[in-house]
Amino acid sequence: MSSPIATIAQALGALGPAALCGYGAAASILSVPSLHKAPAAIGAQAWRAMYTTGARTSPPFGILIAAAQAFCSYTAYQQSSGAWRVWLVAAGSGLGMIPFTLMVMMPTNNKLSAMAKKGEAREEVNEQEYTALLQKWKTLNLVRSVIVGAGTVAAWTAAMS
Length: 161
What we know:
This protein is mainly α. The chain contains five helices and no strands. It has helices at 4-37, 40-78, 83-95, 97-120, 127-160. α1 (4-37) packs antiparallel against α5 (127-160) and α2 (40-78) packs antiparallel against α3 (83-95). The longest helix is centred in the middle third of the chain and has 39 residues, at 40-78. The model has no long low-confidence stretch (mean pLDDT 95).
């Protein structure tokens, strides 16, 4: 890959997933412990604000990264480089966060969002249920970050070949 566009795509495709992986993991590692300290009604509202920010930023960034990786895959294929397969794996791993969120995490997300609505309406929110759901979300979110992290390793492998 020698053109400026290819170099930019390769940089975005290799460094972007690392940033996205860290961004997601930080929500679990840094934010969730603070959310556990708040009463359930307030914590659920804070969680929803954090989730909404992530939901608006992560998928578009992930799609941009996957597009760069797909471009790198196509370019490597055109150059008869075996790295095209690894770039394709990287793109798939990054995009994998979307179906994982929709199919695996969404039930937990919806329950936490419902708790946030109860909190806004000054209704009682079950503390034990909130704590359990928040812990489950933290774990699932870390798993999602590992999926993106696998794409990071694949992208770095492809970039170095």
